[in-house]
Amino acid sequence: MLYIVAALIYVLDQLVKWLIRANLPVFHAVTIIPDVVEFLHIQNTGGAFSIFPNQIWLFVLVAVFVVVAVVVIERKYRPGKLAQVGLGLLLGGAVGNMTDRIIHHSVTDYVYFSIVHFAIFNLADAAIDVGVLLLLINSFRSPKNTKTETKEDVES
């Protein structure tokens, strides 16, 4: 399931970014819901909130680390469905933004919540955020069908 989620996010992310680049000039906007949300095309050369501008290879290296970590976690721990979805979202988003950085030397961002003046982001960013949230939720869930070790188990 993890790799299906990742592939779906990756394909959707790249498709939407291609549509934005092809149809909306940089720094132009299209209102989706007046005074709430719009598509505003920017090319972000940095990370979240445009930190570390022009450090393309730093972010590519971070994305490669994320890819390796997700694969290792999946193979070593065989996570449950919620964690697989979270890891898939994280993987798809990381690879989507990494692809932009390698090919375009920037990330195509386009969602702008004008009602709160929040940072402009994209589907890959949202997938990463939701993926991390699901992994955090999963980390607080107690594993099913596991036995808690007792003092008697340790002594025997």
TrEMBL record:
Annotated membrane topology: Multi-pass membrane protein
Stretches that traverse the bilayer: 56-73, 85-104, 110-137
Residue positions of the active site: D109, D125
GO molecular function, one term: aspartic-type endopeptidase activity
Keyword Protease tagged: yes
Record keywords, A-Z: Aspartyl protease, Cell membrane, Hydrolase, Membrane, Protease, Transmembrane, Transmembrane helix
Catalytic activity: Release of signal peptides from bacterial membrane prolipoproteins. Hydrolyzes -Xaa-Yaa-Zaa-|-(S,diacylglyceryl)Cys-, in which Xaa is hydrophobic (preferably Leu), and Yaa (Ala or Ser) and Zaa (Gly or Ala) have small, neutral side chains
Domain of life: Bacteria
EC number: 3.4.23.36
Subcellular location: Cell membrane
Pathway the protein contributes to: Protein modification; lipoprotein biosynthesis (signal peptide cleavage)
Top-level class of the enzyme under EC nomenclature: hydrolase
Pfam families the UniProt entry points to: Peptidase_A8
Family (UniProt): Belongs to the peptidase A8 family.
Function (record text): This protein specifically catalyzes the removal of signal peptides from prolipoproteins.
Protein name: Lipoprotein signal peptidase
Organism: Alicyclobacillus fastidiosus
Protein's gene: lspA
